[in-house]
Design goal:
Distance between the termini: 63 Å
Helix content: 55-70%
Structural class: mainly alpha
Strand order of the largest sheet: 1-2
Largest sheet: 2 strands, antiparallel
Number of helices: 21
Number of strands: 6
Radius of gyration: 23 Å
Length: about 500
């Protein structure tokens, strides 16, 4: 009786959450339209020259750059994520999502305060294409750019993929031997280019954790899963990773990224080989009888909730086809702003409606991980507006003029900023340099290759380099896997990814 009551409560919470998110998106739509209609009274007559709405979200502007100290809230937020879980007095306090939201939103308010009282210039508004007046209009433009343009599409996509993939359960007696683990990570790397890094990560992280539930050494497996499934596997198609999708919106042919397959194959095979050796050495330290013990009545291998594959591919179709800045393929119709996000939430609701609660319980599904990401990234998107605006202004004067420099420049910044705006900054920088030889939409092919690889591969360098990284970490910790700290993770990424990146650079760029 208690179980059935609990099920009803869980289902009711899920329904209310989806309805609340649809309401938030709808209110955001009306806020967007209100801004488009009434913002002109707060804007100057100078307009930014921007190709389309996707360019606005991450593109360059003609506004003055912020001062260097405007990046301090962003740096403070990164340090909070890195250090607060390490101290005994703050580790349990930091575990509560409300406290994470308090820190992230508080630092976001500091950033907005700088734009309101310390900046003294206008900010290009991405809805009206106008330069706002200084002061509060500039702060409101930054807030609208961060939340309406970037955060809401970002978190809606992650939430949809998280909930839908949470309704797919892989049942059976899986044993986390090195061969199985390597195979699951490899499958994640293959799927990442076709259903997105977020979709691949959310689909396979739970079976991987379940297979390794009896092992003592698991964190390295999750780290390599983040490397491959959440990042390096996603460079073959534009839907694989957000920066490549922005390149597609800017005119890069849909199939051009398939030309990156030699680098994709080299990096992922090398990562899988390193992992297999590493995990084999770890496995020898395990109590194999305990790890490989079969239950009395082992479940047969089965995939439950397969209807969710339909909803999953529906979300991917929404991302690929319902961009409001371009007509739907084969038509002249442009989807309204946030129509894509509403459709993704509708598919999420269908997933909750058509999936048995038993399947989600088998996955130990809850909303903690996605709420953690939502709480932190609301501050990240606001605070990173200042460093991204600085890069937009000074990117062309950084002396980056070779494929190697573009790779490492894009890669290093993609490790700590969202890799999508970083990609666009260097894309525009390369485009402004002209193309004397082979080019793609005006960008030298060698430079575009380096930028694409840097944004995708080096997004694995930190927990915040790409959205799925932090989510997989949160899911692992909810399953009692002790993950390394922010800097501890970077010890792994520097030790493994940097040498592989150097080899890839020497052989292919």
């Amino acid at each position: 009786m208690e179980l059935s009551v609990l099920n009803r409560e869980e289902q009711e919470f899920s329904r209310r959450l989806v309805v609340a998110l649809i309401a938030v998106v709808a209110l955001s739509y009306f806020a967007w339209r209100f801004a488009e209609t009434h913002w002109a009274s707060l804007a100057t007559t100078h307009h930014a020259v921007i190709e389309h709405a996707a360019d606005d979200a991450h593109g360059s502007t003609h506004a003055a750059p912020p001062a260097w100290y405007s990046i301090l809230p962003f740096a403070a937020l990164l340090m909070s994520i890195a250090l607060l879980p390490l101290f005994r007095k703050t580790e349990h306090w930091w575990e509560r999502n409300w406290n994470r939201l308090f820190v992230a939103a508080g630092l976001g308010v500091l950033t907005l305060g700088y734009y309101a009282f310390g900046f003294g210039h206008g900010v290009v508004d991405h809805a009206t294409h106008a330069l706002s007046e200084p002061g509060w209009p500039a702060a409101l433009a930054v807030l609208k750019n961060a939340i309406l343009v970037e955060y809401i599409p970002f978190i809606t996509l992650l939430f949809s993929l998280y909930v839908i993939s949470g309704g797919i359960a892989v049942e059976g007696h899986l044993v986390g031997r090195p061969q199985l683990n390597t195979g699951l990570i490899g499958i994640g790397g293959l799927l990442a280019s076709f259903i997105g890094t977020t979709g691949a990560a959310m689909l396979l992280v739970r079976p991987l954790l379940k297979a390794n539930a009896r092992r003592n050494y698991v964190s390295h497996t999750v780290i390599f899963f983040i490397f491959v499934a959440c990042n390096t596997g996603g460079c073959l198609l534009p839907i694989g990773d957000p920066p490549l999708f922005l390149g597609f919106l800017r005119g890069v042919p849909f199939t051009w990224t398939l030309s990156l397959w030699p680098m994709w194959l080299f990096v992922n095979l090398l990562l899988l080989a390193v992992y297999f050796v590493w995990d084999t050495l770890r496995y020898r330290r395990e109590d194999r009888e305990e790890v490989e013990a079969r239950p009395e009545n082992p479940a047969r291998f089965a995939i439950r909730g397969s209807i969710n594959f339909l909803w999953l591919f529906g979300v991917i179709a929404c991302v690929a086809m319902l961009d409001p800045s371009k007509p739907v393929p084969g038509t002249s119709w442009h989807a309204p702003v946030y129509f894509r996000e509403v459709m993704m939430l509708v598919l999420t609701g269908l997933s909750l409606w058509t999936t048995s609660a038993r399947i989600r319980r088998a996955n130990a599904f809850n909303y903690d991980a996605i709420l953690e990401v939502a709480a932190l990234f609301v501050g990240i998107f606001i605070c990173m507006q200042a460093p991204v605006q600085i890069l937009n202004t000074y990117g062309a004067s950084l002396g980056i003029d070779t494929p190697t420099k573009f790779y490492w420049g894009t890669g290093i910044l993609s490790s700590f900023l969202d890799n999508a705006p970083t990609y666009v900054v260097f894309f525009e920088t390369a485009k402004s340099m002209g193309a004397a030889g082979p080019s793609v939409v005006g960008v030298p092919t060698a430079f575009l290759t380096a930028i694409s690889l840097g944004a995708v591969f080096m997004g694995a360098m930190s927990y915040i380099g790409n959205g799925p990284n932090f989510m997989v970490k949160a899911i692992a910790e909810k399953n009692n896997v002790r993950m390394p700290s922010f800097f501890g993770y970077m010890l792994y990424s520097c030790a493994v990814l940097l040498p592989i990146s150097i080899l890839m650079n020497l052989l292919f760029l």
